[in-house]
Amino acid sequence: MFSEYKINNLESFETPEHLIFEEKVLHNIDSIIDLVGDKDRLIPHAKTHKSKDTLSLLIDNGIKKHKTSTLNELEVLAECDPETLILAYPVTSIIKAKRLESIVAKFPNTKFYTIISNNFHFDLIKNIKNLSGIYIDLDTGMNRTGILKENVSDLLDYISSNNYKNLKGIHAYDGQTYGVVSVEDRVIDTQNSLKDIRDVEKLVKEKFSINDFEIIVGGSWSFHFYIKEKDIKLSPGTWIYWDISNIKQKELSFQIAGVILGQVIDENKSNDTVTIDIGAKAVSSDPPTENRLKLIDKPNSKLIFQNEEHGIIKLNGDSLGLGDYVLAQPGHACTVTPKYNRAVKIDKNGDASGIITPHARDRI
After folding, report:
1. Of 186, 188, 310, 356, which is the most exposed, with the fewest CB atoms less than 10 Å away?
2. Which positions of the chain have pLDDT values less than 70?
3. pLDDT tens-digit series, residues 222-254
4. Measuring CA to CA, which residue among 65, 120, 68 is closest to residue 97?
5. CA distance 113 to 331
6. How many domains is the chain partitioned into structurally?
7. Residue-level pLDDT at 1
8. Cβ(353)–Cβ(22) under 8 Å?
């Protein structure tokens, strides 16, 4: 049952349950270290796991620099004493700037950085005491956040006019590569992003003297295409748990470590459907409905509708009955984690071996 996912004593779980398979997480850690080589080049995003348990495991394996999106992630994960934490999300209010300053003061052993893409962001963080520095957040084509290359010069002039000395480098998330299955197309996109990055790097170095200039780039669909650029730090996100969207990248060997255990709670034989207890509150709800989950060992079954606590599965020739357990691989691992106050850890023998707490699941 459930192919390579061995789970003992299914009846001991109260579904829906978030399960994390230890051996698959360790496989993913070993895989990314083997792929990149230099652990110091890795700055993974903590948004996927949000956990001191998982962060401590990564630090123990030599990955000591990390990125976050929320101030709560930043503060909670700082308790693990990482070498570096980067708030990869713009500060946009005085109250957030003050909280960032208090976090920096609270954890003096960790170096803290954040990103900016305009004068407004810069003015809010420029006077934060003991902040190690800032990165210019560059928009290379996702058109979500970040500054366009042609506008960087004016921003650099503004930073210089304020006599700011802690400009660290460039941050770029090329999320436009997400879902592009073609390796060739992603390579072309990352080469275009790299050209923009190098152009901005030249601009920065013309205006500022930075001894330890740093470039952080990439996401789960692109980070590995920058490996040959030895001066660039790499920033994947979903790799630690992986999911059915990311696994379409056949060139990467990560395994889906986080899954949801559910049960069939009702059936409608005339419609060839069953209802499972994996609703929108139990699995990623940002992909289109049919892509939110995949039932292991049920290749023809499709999720066709969801409510808060219900998921309707069209069987299409697969067999499921009342009370049957199902194991679902999520469409987006990052949005599953905050739906649960803990995940059950499953060891290589299929036994529950503890819990993994998403300590930073709350935004505040």
Report:
1. 188
2. none
3. 999 999 999 999 999 999 999 999 999 999 999
4. 120
5. 31
6. 2
7. 83
8. yes
Terminus-to-terminus CA distance in the chain, angstroms?
A: 40
* Residue 74 tokens, joined: 């930043």
Residue that terminates a domain, selected from 235, 268, 291: 235
Please indicate, yes or no, whether residues 219 and 294 belong to a single structural domain of this protein. Answer: no
- Structural tokens at position 179: 């879902």
Domain boundary among 235, 265, 300: 235
* Model pLDDT, residue 364: 85
Contact 153, 184 (CB under 8 A): no
In a domain, 24, yes or no: no
What is the predicted pLDDT for the residue at 138? 98
- Residue 209's identity, in one-letter code, is S
> b/e map of 86-110 (b: 16 or more CB within 10 Å)?
bbbbbbeeeebbebbbebbeebeeb
Per the prediction, the chain carries an average pLDDT of: 97
Residue 233 — φ and ψ, nearest 5°?
A: -85, 145
| Residues 228, 206: Cα–Cα separation, whole Å | 25
Give the other-Cβ count within 10 Å of 191's Cβ: 11
DSSP-derived secondary structure letter, 142: -
The token pair at 50 is 């949000």
- C-alpha distances (whole Å) from 54 to each of 205, 338, 347 are 37, 14, 15
In terms of domains, do 106 and 220 share one?
yes
Any idea how long the chain is?
364
The neighbouring-strand residues paired with 87 are 68, 114
The Cα 165–Cα 145 span in angstroms is 24
Q: CB under 8 Å to 160, separation ≥6 — which residues?
A: 207, 208
Q: Which stretches of 90-209 are assigned E, i.e. beta strand?
A: 111-116, 133-138, 167-172
% pLDDT > 70, the chain: 100
- 281 and 192 in one domain? no
Residue 277 has a pLDDT of 98
The answer to whether residues 95 and 194 belong to one domain is yes
Q: Are residues 315 and 208 in the same domain?
A: no
Specify whether 289 is located in the same domain as 226.
no
Domain residues for 127?
A: 43-235
